[in-house]
Specification:
The complex is a heterodimer of chains A (346) and B (1144). With 346 residues, chain A is an alpha/beta fold. Chain A contains 14 helices and five strands. Chain A has two domains: 258 residues, 3-Layer(aba) Sandwich (Rossmann fold); 74 residues. A five-stranded parallel sheet of chain A has the order 2-1-3-4-5, sandwiched between helices. In chain A, helix 1 packs across helix 8, helix 3 packs parallel to helix 10 and helix 11 runs antiparallel to helix 14. The relative contact order of chain A is 0.15. Chain B is an alpha+beta fold and 1144 residues long. Among the domains of chain B are: 345 residues, Neuraminidase, CATH 2.120.10; 150 residues, SH3 type barrels (Roll), CATH 2.30.30; 145 residues, Jelly Rolls (Sandwich). Helix content of chain B is 33%, strand content 22%. Chain B is built from 35 helices and 47 strands. Chain B is globular and about 95 Å long. The chains are: A alpha/beta (346), B alpha+beta (1144). The interface between A and B is large, with 57 and 53 residues.
């Protein structure tokens, strides 16, 4: 496969950065000292299953909003994760080619107009050795090819995804954060052994770090933070996941802390032992539930797609979720306020 | 006809005023008693209520646990959550603690679910389908309610809430099986990588390894799945209509998106089914055991089927009805055997089903009720049941291996998974095994513990019973890709040459899991030495594709056929659609090694699709050499396809095709002529023009000549066409054909000529063809629209044009308007106001006569039968109407007749393909590859279209059903027609029975030509082979009878009338078989082949014992010879070994 010039550049850079890669939460963003979140930020969480399932326990969002501190009020989050997604947005397409998924991605970004976008991709590539990880016609075959070719396709696709997000988010977009996927846990037989996967994941993490640096965007290395090593050897089985890949509730708490810390926020006081933090998380989960019915409603075939001439009149109900979501967000802000005030007193 | 269009509508308006106060809602009585009173049961059976609302509401799915409790999920939220509504659907556990067959204890295990469509207790908790996710819920503190919730799988699509992940079941091997339907696009993140399933299909999931894989693809709504006692999988479809489907690894069925090939179900023409269970156990009468029961939820009944072995798969025959109901809200959607041996039925309870055609928020939708019914046989004792949860290891092992009650073994399998594997393995090993089936069960038990006894499984593959050998292969199949086991290849290798095609099928399936480079070469052996049916053929075809790189790389490296025969190479190359080895194969045709007709066609088609210009050149040479007309046609047709679809010509000179302009065979001539046009061989021109000038030229030759000249194009063509069109000597039909040709090269001129012609349409000539041609091309439609703006059209011509345009998938609004203006027509009013609708419903209910309606339905000019089947017989273009009355509300039926596009049945959406030249094709996509699409249009014709020619491919909002079909009816006829449809599938005369009537007949048309030997042979004359007999399809009525008066009189000899009908039977066993003939026997003559069958001279019914001396398909001919016979006759097969053939 033809090597695009920027990738070549990346690979040169990669050598230069190898020495740095041991520093745990390297942040190569130009504005290293500035905090990520600002007052009133609209935040989008984008990725595959790791992000999608985060909506069900709320820890990621609750942790980040606590970490942002009392001065940064009015944060709003939208979980746009989609199981099985790729940088070509395969999973977001319904009856069409992955391109339809891309369009759906562009649409939601254009609607939400985020100021901050988190991106988490890469594990799906690492896990698919020798089989295609995308159905995007132009690269499907190559994605099943050798590792180098597969990674090139991935990074090219990632680049385009970022461009798409920039185009559609408009001028308000201030920050993009690339999250390197955490390592997979080896939970022992009969679950699969992920040593080889983690070796590839370590390389993927380096590629992503360089990719972020080239693009001058923030990078959070969850791989190293969660115990991943270059040898891919035994990742301490803390039983953070059900199956090596998918995190349990507790796993998400740990992961969320590392994410906040990787963004330069202090790890202290990010726990959920107090009732108010629990309440914050639960309220977020309910907001996420409502938002899910808003942006990924069931029955799309009838509401918006090729059977809309039959039951499309029911689509009028979908925007009726908006005021309910807003109300829930007021509640979230109230709880967060109480929580942060209380913490300040303590 | 002009007059009748408006009669109906003026009547609507007057009627509309009468009963406006009556509501649309006619909700059935919701009481339990009303439902109990409405059931119809088989002999000896009793039905009782096991549970109902408020405990269970709108139940969707249910399964038992190893404590003998029934877990039920239901969804009052269906079809769509409202803004502000809680996710509040429930999972309830029902228990009959007293053994009286009624649930006396219930526990709400979860009440925060979102349209749960599957439930499966096991592994210490329960798996629940929750729209996007599969959850595992568990009660950790013993209070009977779920307090632990874990997402096991996520990424299931929800594009349609009656398609979402469903039909959970434990397999005997301890995996969880789950299905999804056609609109669902699933993307699972798994620790093994992403797994996607776009469209319908079935998954299996092993909880221990968290591995999910797709087992088969396709089926529209695969809402039923059951394993037979040897562990083979069978599925039903809630929209596909092929009854029982035998499924195996990698098999692909109807509606799988983008599939180039599909396997068929076992019972075409069956109603939509939901759920599937094998009836079993000692409690039910013996004759029911082994039958597969599946609810026909539209028809308010449960159908059953019986399986027998056939080739690599099975044959399925319809058996008796297990249950039926006259209650309009009884919706059986799941059926399960219970621990007590009784049969349990989940009744969704809803007068409205589905939400594609009926509004989400239709007030008639039920969100409150739900019932679980229990069918028992009071004369028999309940089946013995010990809760597997309470068995010690030994008892559990014994139950798994030896229990004769399926339900016990099933629940024991789930229980086994919660026990200590070592203890269970030693218990399982402590029993000596005698029979193959017990060995199979032990292998399953070890697999359910995820500790497959591979030695025993291998041993199984050498069993005496072919079913045990197949079961052994299936067990190994699941674990083969784990690469733990050695020598699997040799097992598969042995299996592909097994005497049983069924075992071969599994041998090939196993091979598909292996990494070895030789898999395809080995799989191809399965095609040798047995009769290869479509199931086995598909499996081998599939592995040739899946493992393509292995054998193709070998062939490319070695430069020779990697297989040991040319036939294998041809099969494999055709499967992947590449011309590998084409030179060798064409050489074999040239030297006469391949000469079989079918093989020659196969090779020619393959070269057409994949050959190079040099290969096509060889075909042109072969065509010259052969004297076989069929072979000539095959080669010419291949070159035509290559030109049309792939735009390529044979290399070298093309002129030799002109030799076929001398052919006497019309097909060969026409194909050659079309080629001459596309290849621009100008020397053919004069010959073609001559055909069009001669008055006695055959229609087919005229058509071909027009196409050819148009393809040649140029000034000469343009001049010739316009001269002919303007020539007053040329008759209308030919002019119309010429204009249709001209339209392709000079649309504006053609439109002008067409309008001129239509303005002076000769008496008795139809304008439809000509107008329709303009509607199918975008440029021509615009030209016609423009032309019409300058002038008038006769009213009736404009009206016909409007009807065509209204039902055109392209919706040419401008043309409709132009036609309206040109004909001075008012807009067609096809919809009814609410009041008119109420009045019409009232009229249907009070005055409609279904019997009269059936004869309206059967009228030739309405064309209902041509597109819609009722049960086994009729067209396949539109939905099968077998139980439409039982499932669809009256207003829906009326609306669908008047405005076909308003509600379009799932799976019957029209695909609309527009080509670069403006032509459009509408219909159903039959298959699709990288290079072409095959679309079946309204007439049933299959059109192959090159993808490179396509500019757009969309789903049309317009139904294929023509608008205004019913406008020719009088109002009372319309009312009768609706009433007939209302009755279809309901208990009574208009429900198809399991009686095996001959339903598909052929008849001879009125005044058929005949050999003129009637005086010599009498009625027997019609058994003679005679070219002039042109048989036309004819269908029996829903009740199985043939109305004499509808059968054309083929011969009227001085008032002595002969009506001739022919049907086919399949003789399974040679010998005497019983047939029942009903009708006025004195007028009937019956022939088997050319032998007359003796029937009693009088009376109106006779059971005939006929000696069938040959097996296989045979003709039965009925000649009605009387003077004005009234009434019906019917022919019914009584003997099991004689089958009526009602499908094409």
């Amino acid at each position: 496969m033809k090597m695009p010039s920027y990738l070549f550049y990346l690979k040169v850079l990669f050598c230069a950065f190898v020495t740095l890669s041991s520093s745990l939460y390297a942040d190569h963003h130009a504005k290293t000292s500035a905090s990520l979140f600002q007052k009133g930020d609209r935040v989008a969480l984008v990725g595959g299953g790791l992000i999608e399932r985060a909506r069900l326990n709320g820890y990621m969002e609750a942790t980040l909003s606590k970490a942002a501190g009392s001065k940064v009020s009015g944060l709003k989050f939208r979980n746009l994760g989609w199981s099985g997604d790729t940088v070509f947005n395969d999973a977001r397409s319904y009856f069409g080619k992955p391109k339809e998924g891309r369009d759906r991605m562009a649409k939601i970004i254009a609607e939400w107009k985020p100021n901050v976008v988190f991106l988490n991709y890469g594990a799906e590539v690492v896990l698919s050795k020798g089989v295609p990880w995308t159905d995007e016609p132009s690269v499907k075959k190559g994605s099943a090819g050798d590792w180098a070719e597969s990674v090139d396709i991935f990074l090219e696709g990632y680049q385009k995804l970022i461009e798409l997000i920039r185009e559609n988010a408009g001028d308000g977009l201030r920050e993009i954060v690339v999250i390197a996927p955490p390592p997979l846990e080896n939970l022992g037989e009969p679950l699969p052994n992920h040593q080889g996967t983690n070796q590839r994941m370590a390389k993927m993490c380096d590629f992503l770090r360089n990719f972020a640096s080239t693009n001058k965007i923030r990078f959070v290395d969850l791989f190293t933070a969660m115990g991943g090593t270059n040898s891919g050897e035994k990742v301490a089985a803390q039983s953070l996941t059900h199956d090596g890949l998918h995190f349990k509730d507790y796993g998400y708490q740990v992961l969320a802390k590392h994410l906040a810390s990787g963004l330069g926020y202090a790890k202290e006081s990010l726990g959920f032992s107090d009732p108010l933090s629990q309440k914050l998380k639960d309220t977020i989960v309910e907001k996420n539930r409502l938002f899910f019915h808003r942006w990924r409603p069931a029955n799309e075939t009838y509401l918006f797609l090729f059977r809309k001439h039959e039951q499309g009149n029911n689509a009028k109900e979908i925007p009726q979720f908006d005021p309910i979501i807003e109300k829930q967000e007021v509640e979230i802000e109230k709880i967060r306020d109480q929580l942060l005030k209380k913490e300040a007193i303590n | 006809m002009k007059k009748s269009v408006f009669i109906l509508f003026s009547l609507f308006i007057t009627l509309g005023l009468l009963h406006a106060q009556r509501g649309l809602t006619k909700i059935p009585d919701t009481s339990i008693q009303a439902q109990l009173d409405a059931f119809i049961l088989p002999d000896g059976a009793k039905i009782n209520l096991f549970a109902s609302e408020p405990v269970v509401r709108n139940p969707i799915h249910m399964n038992w646990d190893s404590k003998g409790r029934l877990w039920v999920v239901g969804s009052p939220l269906y079809p769509h959550i409202k803004p502000g509504q809680e996710e509040s659907d429930q999972l309830v556990i029902l228990e009959d603690t007293t053994g009286d067959g009624v649930a006396d204890k219930h526990t709400v295990f979860a009440d925060d679910l979102h349209i749960p469509t599957g439930v499966l207790p096991g592994d210490g908790g329960v798996y629940v389908a929750n729209s996007n996710d599969v959850l595992f819920l568990k009660d950790t503190d013993g209070d009977g309610k779920a307090d632990h919730r874990e997402v096991i799988l996520s990424g299931f699509g929800t594009e349609d809430t009656h398609h979402i992940v469903h039909t959970f079941r434990w397999g005997p091997e301890g995996m969880m099986w789950l299905n999804q339907s056609i609109y669902i696009h699933t993307h699972l993140d798994t620790p093994y990588g992403i797994r996607r399933l776009l469209g319908g299909g079935m998954w299996h999931y092993r909880p221990e390894t968290r591995r999910s894989e797709v087992f088969m693809k396709g089926l529209v709504n695969p809402w039923g799945h059951a394993f037979d006692e040897w562990g083979q999988s069978f599925m039903t479809d809630g929209a596909g209509g092929q009854g029982i489907n035998f499924v195996y690894p990698r098999s692909v069925f109807v509606a799988s998106p983008g599939a180039p090939r599909r396997v068929q179900g076992l019972n075409p023409g069956q109603p939509k089914l939901c759920g599937l269970e094998v009836l079993s156990g000692s409690h039910i009468p013996e004759h029911w055991r082994g039958a597969l029961a599946s609810p026909d939820f539209r028809g308010h009944r449960i159908k059953t089927y019986r399986l027998s072995d056939k080739g690599s798969a099975y044959e399925s025959r319809e058996y008796k009805e297990l249950l039926a109901s006259r209650h309009g809200a009884f919706r059986p959607i799941d059926v399960k055997m219970g621990p007590d041996g009784a049969i349990y039925v989940a009744d969704l309870y809803n007068p409205i089903i589905q939400h594609g055609e009926v509004d989400f928020r239709d007030p008639r939708r039920d969100h409150k009720h739900g019932r679980i019914w229990r069918i028992s046989f009071p004369a028999n004792p309940p089946a013995p049941f010990t809760k597997p949860a309470e068995m010690n290891s030994n008892a559990l092992a014994e139950a798994l291996l030896f229990s004769e009650e399926n339900i016990v073994r099933e629940l024991a399998t789930a229980e086994l998974r919660t026990r200590k594997p070592d203890e269970m393995l030693s218990a399982l090993n402590s029993f000596p095994l005698k029979d193959d089936i017990h060995v199979v069960r032990r292998v399953w038990a070890t697999q359910a513990l995820n500790q497959l006894d591979i030695g025993l499984a291998k041993q199984l593959t050498k069993s005496k019973s072919h079913k045990a050998r197949a079961a052994g292969l299936r067990a190994i199949y699941y674990d083969a890709s784990n690469k733990k086991y050695k020598n699997i290849l040799s097992i598969a290798e042995e299996a592909v040459s097994d005497p049983s095609p069924h075992v071969r099928l599994w041998g090939v399936s196993l091979l598909a899991q292996l990494d070895d480079p030789r898999t395809v070469a080995i799989a191809l052996r399965a095609l040798e030495g047995v009769v290869v049916d479509d199931f086995l053929d598909f499996a081998v075809w599939s592995i040739c594709r899946e493992h393509r790189d292995r054998w193709v790389n070998e062939m490319k490296t070695k430069g020779e056929n990697p297989f040991d025969s040319l036939a294998k190479l041809l099969f494999a190359s055709s499967a992947i659609g590449e011309p590998l080895g084409a030179d060798q194969i064409l050489a074999s045709i040239a030297n006469g090694k391949i000469k079989d007709d079918q093989k020659v066609w196969e090779v020619a088609n393959w070269i057409a699709d994949k050959g190079t210009p040099a290969h096509l050149h060889q075909l042109l040479g072969l065509a010259q050499k052969t004297s076989s007309v069929s072979h000539q046609h095959a080669y010419l047709n291949a070159m035509l396809t290559a030109k049309k679809i792939r735009k390529i010509n044979p290399s070298g000179s093309l002129d030799s095709v002109l030799k076929f302009l001398q052919s006497e065979n019309d097909t060969v001539w026409s194909t050659a002529v079309e080629l001459a046009g596309l290849w621009k061989l100008d020397s053919a021109r004069s010959n073609l023009e001559a055909i069009l000038k001669q008055t006695d030229s055959k229609q087919v030759r005229k058509n071909a000549a027009i196409n050819s000249l148009i393809a040649m194009g140029g000034e000469k063509t343009r001049e010739f066409f316009d001269e002919r069109i303007q020539n007053p000597q040329v008759p209308y039909p030919l002019k119309s054909m010429l204009i249709k040709g001209q339209m392709k090269i000079q649309p504006i001129l053609a439109a002008r000529r067409a309008v001129m012609l239509l303005r002076n349409l000769p008496e008795e000539q139809e304008p439809n063809d000509l107008i329709a041609a303009f509607i199918t091309n975008k440029g021509a439609t615009q030209a016609l629209t423009k032309e019409l703006q300058n002038g008038k059209l006769p009213e009736d011509v404009a009206l016909k044009g409007m009807q065509l345009a209204e039902s055109a998938p392209t919706r040419p609004e401008a043309l409709i308007k132009a036609l309206q203006n040109a004909g001075g027509l008012k807009p067609m009013k096809m919809s009814l106001s609410k009041e008119e609708m109420i009045a019409m419903i009232e009229r249907v209910n009070s005055k409609g006569n279904a019997a009269r309606g059936e004869s309206v339905y059967r009228r030739e000019n309405l064309q209902c039968i041509a597109c819609h089947a009722i049960g086994e017989v009729g067209g396949v273009i539109g939905p099968n109407l077998v139980s439409i009355g039982a499932s669809a509300p009256v207003d829906y039926l009326i609306e669908s007749l008047l405005e076909p596009s308003k509600k379009i049945k799932e799976g019957y959406h029209t695909n609309l393909i527009t080509l670069k030249n403006g032509d459009s094709y509408a219909g159903g996509i039959l298959s699709e590859t990288d290079t072409e699409v095959v679309i079946r249009d309204l007439t049933g014709k299959q059109n192959r279209i090159a993808k490179t020619d396509i500019t757009s491919q969309t789903i049309s909002p317009v139904s294929l059903m023509p608008v205004g079909l019913t406008t020719q009816l009088r109002e009372d006829e319309f009312v009768d027609l609706v009433r007939f449809m209302v009755e279809l599938g309901k208990e009574g005369k208009f429900k198809t029975t399991t009686q095996r009537f001959a339903r598909k007949w052929d008849v001879l048309p009125v005044n058929s030509p005949n050999p003129g030997t009637i005086h010599h042979y009498g009625a027997k004359m019609f058994t003679q082979e005679f070219d002039g007999y042109v048989w036309r399809p004819f269908y029996a009525m829903v009740g199985g009878g043939i109305p004499f008066e509808e059968v054309p009189v083929a011969l009227n000899r001085r008032g002595d009338k002969y009506q001739v009908l022919r049907t086919q039977v399949d003789v399974v066993k040679i010998g005497n078989h019983k047939l029942r003939l009903k009708g006025n026997l004195g007028d009937l003559n019956l022939f088997l082949g050319d032998q007359e069958v003796e029937i009693p001279a009088g009376g109106d019914q006779a059971d005939l014992l006929i000696d069938f001396k040959k097996a296989g398909k045979q003709n039965l001919l009925v000649v009605v010879n009387g003077r004005g016979t009234n009434g019906h006759f019917a022919l019914e097969a009584l003997s099991e070994d004689l089958r009526v053939i009602n499908t094409l």
